[in-house]
Design brief:
This protein has 237 residues and is α/β, with parallel strands linked by helices. It has 8 helices and 6 strands. It has a single domain, classed as Uracil-DNA Glycosylase, subunit E. A 6-stranded mixed beta sheet has the order 1-3-2-4-6-5. β5 and β6 form a beta hairpin. The protein is globular and about 45 Å long.
Length: 237
């Protein structure tokens, strides 16, 4: 069960990308100026590759790296509050080797899971522009080329990710049932025989601090994922 990229060449290509001037300027400025709490750290400050088990049956898709999370650490959902929620849940449902994700070298391994994002650079205000999303899409397409033979469940974190995943799958000829599913927490759509797309609120502080996303509601997503993959009712973690 690997903890790195599914293809090293793809990971390197992602990390070297400078296709979007606005995103390049922002991610590098954040890395230079740094947050006070991390002023002594060397920020990654580059696009962030996906990572996980190359034979994963569970694919988790977020929006983009956080400015002081993955843009600092160089690994998706690592070093921020969203990652605390995500990896704690993945650990408790058997998809991760540990509940914490603090750095690229913290020993975390994903088990039957792969984590990526629609956009690979931290965007200002967490809002990538349509042309930036379009330039980044080939990376997600290439990951899907490698992962889809094994993938049986896709969890999209947030409406933006859910809409984009639905679009990408549709463009690949993978229909969703029901067609054009609407985003809501816990919404489900079949994406071909034996495959399931699940929608979840993003575990951002905006959602978790306000109570829009609770632990029990978030756990329900991973319980459903585990149930689908196991083909039977799981035991509670």
């Amino acid at each position: 069960m690997a903890a790195g990229p599914i293809e090293p060449a793809l990971s390197s290509e992602v990390a070297l990308c400078r296709a979007c001037p606005r995103l390049v300027e922002w991610r590098e400025r954040v890395a230079r100026e740094r947050r006070a709490a991390y002023r002594d750290e060397d920020y990654w400050g580059r696009p962030v590759p996906g990572f996980g088990d190359p034979r994963a049956r569970l694919l988790v898709v977020g929006l983009a790296p956080a400015a002081h999370g993955a843009n600092r650490t160089g690994r998706m959902f690592t070093g921020d509050r969203s990652g605390e929620w995500l990896y704690d849940a993945l650990f408790r449902f058997g998809f991760a080797s540990q509940p914490e994700a603090t750095s690229r070298n913290d020993g975390l391994r994903l088990v039957d899971a792969y984590v990526t994002a629609v956009v690979r650079c931290a965007p200002p205000d967490n809002k990538p522009l349509p042309d930036e999303r379009a330039r980044c899409r080939p990376f997600l397409d290439r990951e899907l080329d490698l992962l889809l033979p094994e993938i049986r469940c896709v969890v999209a974190l947030g409406k933006y990710s859910f809409d984009q995943v639905t679009r990408v799958l549709g463009d690949r000829g993978i229909a969703t049932a029901p067609a054009h599913p609407r985003f809501s927490h816990g919404a489900e759509a079949e994406i071909g025989p034996g495959r399931l797309l699940l929608a979840s609120y993003h575990p951002s502080q905006q959602n978790t601090f306000t109570g829009k996303l609770t632990r029990s509601a978030f756990d329900a997503i991973w319980k459903r994922s585990r149930e689908h993959l196991d083909g039977s009712n799981p035991t509670s973690p």
